[in-house]
Write a sequence for this structure.
């Protein structure tokens, strides 16, 4: 599993993943204690097709399950991943 970092300040947060010096990120906004909105996923061209974006969304899903909260995939990439993974429906808000 890749080393994904999570940083949160106030109502904003992000997940980051660095591979070969290139950083992919997924940002979110905290709507409440029980809901996060995934608002952006950015993957540099050097990491496209290597699963970096999917790894970030997967980590958010794992954290949501562990923390008992829901995710709103507003970002088109995250939304597409939720469509591809019906097993994540339990954390979709």
């Amino acid at each position: 599993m890749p080393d994904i970092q999570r940083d949160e300040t106030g109502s904003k947060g992000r997940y980051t993943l660095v591979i070969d010096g290139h950083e992919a990120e997924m940002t979110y906004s905290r709507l409440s204690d029980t809901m996060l909105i995934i608002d952006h996923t950015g993957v540099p061209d050097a990491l496209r097709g290597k699963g970096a974006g999917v790894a970030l969304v997967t980590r958010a899903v794992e954290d949501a399950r562990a923390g008992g909260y829901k995710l709103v995939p507003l970002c088109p990439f995250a939304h597409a991943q939720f469509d591809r993974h019906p097993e994540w429906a339990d954390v979709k808000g």
Q: What stands out?
A: The chain has a mean pLDDT of 96. The beta strands are 4-9, 12-19, 22-32, 35-42, 70-73.
